[in-house]
């Protein structure tokens, strides 16, 4: 039943060989990675006015252009910085990898934690904001606000689980529709002004209060929400078709130009039309004044709502790729680096959806409460990423390194100032949660990494361990198969036990890529073991099916009446939270194999010592252990 439902929702699984066809080029990569950034056009300008209008009144329409210009300058500094990141780090991971390589492990973990928090909040804020607009227009839906939010999170999750190619089509078209509708709004607005239209005077004070630097910095920090999402392209480089680096850099450039035109155009248009966002959403009010209640007004309103909801999709593209890179580095559970049926990082997609849904429920879908948490994380990652690139240029130099170092250094300084301003001005609004949460996540990631180091240290096979397999044994009338994922002390222990109960033993491995298979073959040969190793390639990343097919095959030559013992190697950890960090595939294998009456399943456990015991033996500071691993 579950499998049928899964096929209906997600579709048929794809083989590994289909991975190239699942990648996107510039045409579809642009909308799927730009939704978050371009959606901020819907609220970044009005956030600036929210700060300026109460303080300086009508002068706000003059100063908004100054603030917008500063944000656009920062936009292009970030664009140039991330183009360099894409070129130097084409395997994804963005700020995490850049900070880790150039500033050290701790800085890398902090960047990864900050960006992860930002992606989760992007989903919660975008969905809640979009649904707010629905229930405002259709008041009878207000009691179902949370249910609508959760439905949209589920919709985005399923869309992304269907694979990169399909999700790019589903979520790409609305992004293009929003771009064209806002472009039409800007062009239509200026044409109307040229034809002699005089906008009505707004009902606001003509304040003579001085324009202070502190006020402009607050407005600048609020408007910087227009820059959230710009980092998503550098995190998702491996999702592009070859040449991936070239396509990613092109998308980043186009995205920056689109934000320049749409954000710059709408904020400048607001100065002419004197839009006061306290009376409603700035873009919708502007569309009403330019187009009236015509067809184009409803197009702008509809596409604005859709892009606010689909802005969350950038996170569904960037977050799974980020945590997959971190999982390969063993700072988060390894399961997050595994690809699902449609060759997407499905575990990351599901976790993002679940945590975002929990946030929406916890904050009751309140955008005001959630927005206080927003943007802190992404600007921390901006600062660490650019600081990392600055240090890289100082160390490695190269052509035009002075200019590159200046760009990254100036960008790091600017984004650091923005982080401080956001953290201070929005601390009471909820930013304190992020300020507290990021160090906690960093601590958790360090604990995960140290656990994996301790596990690897205990499972590592040494040259002398090959003697463990040389034991005398009695012959039993049964056939034994030992499934092994890799060669370690747990698998050797299982093979050793197998030799005591039968002289017909097979070591069986299912590999999901050829490189993994070759490495295992080479390591297995070093043991000079008499037990043959059989490797089966699984293009659909299935584990159990290749084993059952092998048992039924002529190669294995199973005879009626034979009993087959499958010995599953397993290691156990000391603490409850450590269990979450390891695959429990053996449970599924055991359950399925026991359905066959001629198969006996035996689990061979290896109890590992506590992490602290192993790490103390290294007799080194923990930061040194992290650096050397």
Strand order of the largest sheet: 3-2-1-4-5
SS elements, strand count: 5
- Uncertain regions spanning at least 5 consecutive residues: 472-476
- Biggest sheet features: 5 strands, parallel
How would you characterize the overall build of this protein?
There is one protein chain. The protein has 629 residues and is mainly alpha-helical. The radius of gyration is 28 Å and the shape is elongated. β1, α20 (489-501) and β2 form a beta-alpha-beta unit. Helices cover 65% and strands 6% of the residues. A five-stranded parallel sheet has the order 3-2-1-4-5, with helices on both faces. The chain is built from 26 helices and five strands. α3 (44-56) packs antiparallel against α9, α4 packs across α18 and α18 crosses α19.
Which terms would index this structure?
five-stranded parallel beta sheet, 629 residues, 26 helices, mainly alpha, single chain, elongated
Short description:
By secondary structure, this protein is mainly alpha-helical.
Chart the SSEs and their pairings.
Blueprint: H1 2-10, H2 26-39, H3 44-56, H4 60-88, H5 95-103, H6 105-137, H7 145-161, H8 164-194, H9 213-223, H10 232-235, H11 244-273, H12 282-291, H13 295-310, H14 312-328, H15 346-362, H16 367-371, H17 376-396, H18 401-425, H19 427-459, E1 479-483, H20 489-501, E2 505-511, H21 514-526, E3 533-537, H22 544-552, E4 564-572, H23 576-579, H24 585-593, E5 599-607, H25 611-617, H26 622-628
Parallel strand pairs: 1-2, 1-4, 2-3, 4-5
Helix pairs in contact: 2-8, 2-11, 2-13, 2-14, 3-4, 3-9, 4-9, 4-11, 4-17, 4-18, 5-6, 5-17, 6-7, 6-13, 6-14, 6-15, 6-17, 6-19, 7-15, 8-11, 8-12, 8-13, 9-18, 11-12, 12-13, 14-15, 17-18, 18-19, 19-25
């Amino acid at each position: 039943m579950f499998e049928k439902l899964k096929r209906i929702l997600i579709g048929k699984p794809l083989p590994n060989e289909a991975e190239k066809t699942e990648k996107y080029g510039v045409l579809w990569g642009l909308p799927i990675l730009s939704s978050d950034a371009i959606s901020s056009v819907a609220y970044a300008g009005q956030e600036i006015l929210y700060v300026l209008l109460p303080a300086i009144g009508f002068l706000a329409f003059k100063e908004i252009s100054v603030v917008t210009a500063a944000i656009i300058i920062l936009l292009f500094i970030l664009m140039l910085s991330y183009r360099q990141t894409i070129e130097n780090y084409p395997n994804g991971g963005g700020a995490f990898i850049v900070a880790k390589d150039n500033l050290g492990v701790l800085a890398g973990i902090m960047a990864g934690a900050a960006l992860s928090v930002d992606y989760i909040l992007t989903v919660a804020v975008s969905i809640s904001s979009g649904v707010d607009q629905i229930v405002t227009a259709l008041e009878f839906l207000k009691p179902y606000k949370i249910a609508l939010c959760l439905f949209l999170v589920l919709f985005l999750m399923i869309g992304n689980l269907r694979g990169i190619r399909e999700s790019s089509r589903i979520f790409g078209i609305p992004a293009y529709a929003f771009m064209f509708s806002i472009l039409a709004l800007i062009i239509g607005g200026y044409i109307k002004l040229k034809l002699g239209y005089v906008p009505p005077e707004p009902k606001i004070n003509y304040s003579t209060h001085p324009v202070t630097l502190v006020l402009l910095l607050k407005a600048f920090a609020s408007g910087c929400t227009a820059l959230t999402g710009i980092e998503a392209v550098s995190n998702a480089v491996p999702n592009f078709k070859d040449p991936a680096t070239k396509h990613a850099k092109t998308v980043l450039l186009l995205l920056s130009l689109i934000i320049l035109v749409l954000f710059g155009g709408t904020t400048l248009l607001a100065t002419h039309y004197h839009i006061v966002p306290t009376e409603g959403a700035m873009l919708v009010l502007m569309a009403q004044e330019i187009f009236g209640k015509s067809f184009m007004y409803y197009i702008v309103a509809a596409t604005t709502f859709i892009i606010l909801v689909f802005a969350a999709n950038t996170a569904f593209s960037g977050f799974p790729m980020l945590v997959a890179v971190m999982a390969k580095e063993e700072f988060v559970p390894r399961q997050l680096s595994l690809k699902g049926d449609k060759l997407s990082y499905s575990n990351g997609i599901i976790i993002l959806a679940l945590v975002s849904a929990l946030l929406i429920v916890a904050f009751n879908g309140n955008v005001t409460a959630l927005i206080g948490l927003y943007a802190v994380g992404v600007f921390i990652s901006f600062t660490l990423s650019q600081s990392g690139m600055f240090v890289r240029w100082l160390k490695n130099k190269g052509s035009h390194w002075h200019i590159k170092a200046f760009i990254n250094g100036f960008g790091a300084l600017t984004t650091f100032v923005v982080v401080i301003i956001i953290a201070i001005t929005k601390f009471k609004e909820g930013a304190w949660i992020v300020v507290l949460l990021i160090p906690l996540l960093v601590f958790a990631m360090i604990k995960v990494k140290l656990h994996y180091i301790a596990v690897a240290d205990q499972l590592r096979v040494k040259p002398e361990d090959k003697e463990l397999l040389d034991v005398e044994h009695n012959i039993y009338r049964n056939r034994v198969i030992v499934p092994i994922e890799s060669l370690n002390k747990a698998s050797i222990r299982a093979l050793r036990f197998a030799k005591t109960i039968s002289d017909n033993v097979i070591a069986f491995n299912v590999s999901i890529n050829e490189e993994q298979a070759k490495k295992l073959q080479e390591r297995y040969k070093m043991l000079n073991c008499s037990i043959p190793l059989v490797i089966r390639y699984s293009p659909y990343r299935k584990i159990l099916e290749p084993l059952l097919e092998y048992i039924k095959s002529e190669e294995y030559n199973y005879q009626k009446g034979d009993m087959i013992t499958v010995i599953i190697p397993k290691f156990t950890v000391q603490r409850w939270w450590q269990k979450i960090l390891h695959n429990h595939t053996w449970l599924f294998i055991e359950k399925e194999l026991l359905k066959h009456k001629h198969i006996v399943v035996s689990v061979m456990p290896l109890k590992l010592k506590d992490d602290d015991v192993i790490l103390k033996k290294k007799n080194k500071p923990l930061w040194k252990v992290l650096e050397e691993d």
